[in-house]
Amino acid sequence: EVQLVESGGGLVKPGGSLRLSCAASGFTFSNAWMNWVRQAPGKGLEWVGRIKSKTDGGTTDYAAPVKGRFTISRDDSKNTLYLQMNSLKTEDTAVYYCTTTGITPWGQGTLVIVSS
Amino acid sequence: EIVLTQSPDFQSVTPKEKVTITCRASQSIGSSLHWYQQKPDQSPKLLIKYASQSISGVPSRFSGSGSGTDFTLTINSLEAEDAAAYYCHQSSSLPQTFGQGTRLEIK
Predict the structure, then answer these.
(1) Do B98 and A44 touch (CB under 8 A)?
(2) Chain B residue closest in CA terms to A65
(3) Residue A39 and residue A97 in contact, taking contact as beta carbons nearer than 8 Å
(4) Within an 8 Å CB–CB cutoff, is residue B34 touching chain A?
(5) Record: contact B49-A46, CB cut-off 8 A
(6) Percent of chain A beyond pLDDT 90?
(7) Strand order in A70-75's β-sheet?
(8) What is the DSSP string of A6-73?
(9) What is the pLDDT of residues B41-97, one digit of tens each?
(10) How large is the average pLDDT for residues A29-40?
(11) CA-to-CA distance for A39 and B4, rounded, in angstroms?
């Protein structure tokens, strides 16, 4: 059974940092290209970024609003995906989900609130 | 960036009705188009992947079609539990993008 469990969210001040984690199980994590997707309160879905599998180079790509501030990494030995978020802004407030295309279900997400 | 435009934004429908939601891409995305259902306070649920591939556990009344720039999600014989927001999503090129969503209300 596929499981994606996000954690690490919380309340942080503007300019602060936070690291999110996503524990994956039920599929071959090391082969998966993993994404982070977020959803601001009452809004639609927004792709944040992606990391390829190490076999495919392990490279990362980011959406313009987070490029240079967010970093995606993975630890295949722990089946875990990470999102390091620096220089947080109020507009980063959202529920963050880790996903991989075609895999279901999504996790419950983790809420990040950026507020002074 | 590929823009996905869904229509309608909102629809109020009666049970057992057939519903069609469309998603138009600003450029060709082949079949790399996926559909999600999201109910209030829940995470999105994958309904259809790669335009028309069914997902295990998803009721057969949900189906998808299309390729290139025009895609359709069809819900046959709508049920009360189908009240939700529906999103299309393209994974053809970066940045990946989502449609703005279609909210379905059951009368």
Answers:
(1) yes
(2) B95
(3) yes
(4) yes
(5) no
(6) 95
(7) A3-7, A18-25, A80-85, A70-75
(8) EE--EEE-TT--EEEEEEEESS-GGG--EEEEEE-TTS-EEEEEEE--GGGT--EEE-TTTTTTEEEE
(9) 999 999 999 999 999 999 999 999 999 999 999 999 999 999 999 999 999 999 999
(10) 97
(11) 17
Residue with tokens 């025009």: B70
Distance from CA of A13 to the nearest CA of B (A): 25
Structure token pair of residue B30: 């082949």
Tell whether A97 is within 8 A of chain B (Cβ).
Answer: yes
Cβ of B46 within 8 Å of Cβ of A106? The answer is: yes
Question: DSSP class of residue B96?
Answer: P
Q: pLDDT tens digits, residue range A66-105? A: 999 999 999 999 999 999 999 999 999 999 999 998 888 9
